[in-house]
Amino acid sequence: MQAYSSVFKDEAKLDISYIPNSLPHREKELKLLTEFFSFALHSPEKMTQRLIITGDVGTGKTVLSQRFGANIAMEAAKRRLNLKYVHVNCREYRGRLFLILQHVVSAFHPNFPARGYSSEELLRILMQVLDEENAYVILSLDEFDSVIDREGSEA
Description:
two-stranded parallel ribbon; Rossmann fold; mainly alpha; 42% helix
């Protein structure tokens, strides 16, 4: 029997979690994000920035955010800075704040229990982890409208 080869050079690039090294036609936006968050590498204790990336469906907002996150996490590691970029697709968590916070806490503690905490407790735990571990987080909430739809605008 003859073995068939794939028509693809690298099938891994078809995976939904694949983040390309370069983003053609998004260099300007990536540079702006990097400049906007540059303080995170120099003075992370002053991190309180909020940013909304808007655009039509399929224009590269998610991959732009993920590429930025991978870049800043790599640069932080070089500087021995405990900074994590956490990307959350809120729709995957059905817009439930509890599940989103659980995901963020588990980015720092992978074996964190999946049950037994309220959203408020998880937020307190996250703040405690960040404080005790001298850690910082850049949190990307993709598809955030699903949280507002479920939890309301006060979320």
